[in-house]
Amino acid sequence: LSRLNTIWKGFINMQSVAKFVTKAYPVSGCFDYLSEDLPDTIHIGGRISPKTVWDYVGKLKSSLSKELCLIRFHPATEEEEVAYISLYSYFSSRGRFGVVANNNRHIKDLYLIPLSNKDPIPSKLLPFEGPG
Fold first, then answer.
1. Are 62 and 101 in contact (CB under 8 A)?
2. What three-state secondary structure class fits 68?
3. Which of the four CATH numbers 2.30.130.10, 2.40.440.10, 2.40.290.10, 1.20.59.10 does domain 8-125 have?
4. What is the model's pTM?
5. Strand ranges (DSSP E) for the chain?
6. Does the first or last residue of the chain, that is N or C, have fewer Cβ atoms within 10 Å of its Cβ?
7. What confidence tens digit (pLDDT) does each residue in 80-98 have?
8. Which residues sit opposite 18 in a β-bridge?
9. Is 101 helix (H, G, I), strand (E, B) or coil?
């Protein structure tokens, strides 16, 4: 991550689960509006099944009027890692993704997909068009 520029820094908050400072890094897609459209605090409003997200992503990828953008969140400091891992564990143990509740103008839907460093990249997200 040290070779990549951060595109955003702020909080991720899920009531009664975790709140932490994080940085976002580009993975794939267009990032033109993200730094201004992501709020200071990303509020996670709930959970969603992976199947629902993958069905939606499949439809999105075939749309000419919509873009899929992938970013990676990483704890801003070592002290933030405990809360970051708590949120990851919460979604991973339940087999669910996170749904962001406070999207802005250019961002229609935003999901948090818990991936460990050993998990393969889901095929629905490939190919990457960006730094990867």
1. no
2. coil
3. 2.40.290.10
4. 0.90
5. 8-14, 18-28, 41-48, 70-75, 97-100, 111-112
6. N
7. 999 999 999 999 999 999 9
8. 14
9. coil
